[in-house]
Amino acid sequence: MASRLNHRLRRIAAAAIFALAGPSAALAAYPEKPIKLVVPYTPGGAADQLSRVLAEGLARDLGQPVLVENKPGANTMVAATYVARAAPDGYTVFLSSNASMVLNPMLYQRIAYDAARDFQPLTIVAELPLVLVASNAVPATNLAEFVAYAKARPGKLNYASVGIGSPLQLAIELLKSRTGMDLTHVPYNGSAPALTSLMGNDTQLMADVVSTSLPLVREHKLKALAVTTSERLAVLPDVPTVAESGFPGFRAATWFGLAVPRAVPQADAQRLQAAIDKVLRDPALRGRFEPLGLVIQAPRSQAQVDAYLQEDRQRWGEVIEANKIKMD
Predict the structure, then answer these.
(1) DSSP alpha helices (H): ranges in the chain?
(2) How many CB atoms lie within 10 A of CB 4?
């Protein structure tokens, strides 16, 4: 009788311990199934390549597959809206960018998500530096000379971009405000026709992502005047920064990050953040993407990520407001 009673008490005690440990065990088990990484660009480009390498690294650390799902369209808004409406369970992650998190909310009058309310930014993964490239027909070998040349011809020079409200257009508008140049904007549907216009001297200046313009610079079809980063780039070591060219404090770059729906449990978001930080510390990641013009970022604390986004919003908000740029 005593033996049966003791056995029963042990079973009750074990059940009580299991019940108490249950929630903690479930919490510690995240993730328990594959994670989806939603990419707002088509397959094959630099953003897609970066996403797939990130997915591989995250999968190794998290112990679950991380599946890339491409959802291009509407200047990243198709994917952003999809993730904003996804279940906030930590299993849907967004490849965010300054287009989706900063520019679109300020540019578009109708937008189906609220970047600040709907998303929790986890990290800034990579910056895409911009290079100021000029037509070979322009008799300027550096940015200071180009500014002097343009100021002597107000309103007579054109600059190309990939569209109104794009980061490339806003970078030139920021440059105009800092230098006093009067340039006419000529938007194109994509970087290829914009760069063609530059090579044909239909336009004289363009801010472009380094990866696109680099081959043309190396082939001497365009000339690089300056890079818009705070430091020189390894792929263009002889090209000075805008700040070095006589305009201190100038900085402009596009970027990619990772974000999740705002209501994801804090513990799960922190688990994801820790895994991402581990991937970013891998020197092989930098070595792989630096030749493509992507500068992999060091891990940031949440406060640093929030400050980075706030600085970006302030920088581009001033440009958008000053030029009264709005999209339908």
Answers:
(1) 2-28, 46-62, 77-84, 98, 104-107, 115-118, 143-151, 167-179, 191-199, 210-218, 266-280, 283-289, 302-323
(2) 8
Q: Nearest to residue 85, comparing CAs of 51, 114, 47?
A: 114
Location of each CATH 3.40.190.150 domain in the chain: 35-128+253-323
42 — alpha (psi -120 to 50), left (phi > 0) or beta? beta
Residue 129's H or E segment, with its range, is strand 119-134
Determine the Cα–Cα distance for residues 197 and 200; give it in Å rounded to an integer.
Answer: 5
Cβ(68)–Cβ(92) under 8 Å?
no
SS3 state of residue 135: coil
Angle (CA) 36-212-171 rounded to 5° is 90
The residues of the chain that CATH labels 3.40.190.10 are 129-245
Instruction: Determine the CATH number of domain 35-128+253-323.
Output: 3.40.190.150
Start-to-end CA distance of the chain, whole Å, equals 81
Residue entry with tokens 């990520």: 305
Q: pLDDT per residue over 144-203, tens digit each?
A: 999 999 999 999 999 999 888 888 999 999 999 999 999 999 999 888 999 999 999 999
- For 74, residues 6+ apart whose C-beta sits below 8 A from its C-beta are none
In terms of CATH architecture, what is 129-245? 3-Layer(aba) Sandwich (3.40)
Placement of tokens 């006419």 in the chain: 184
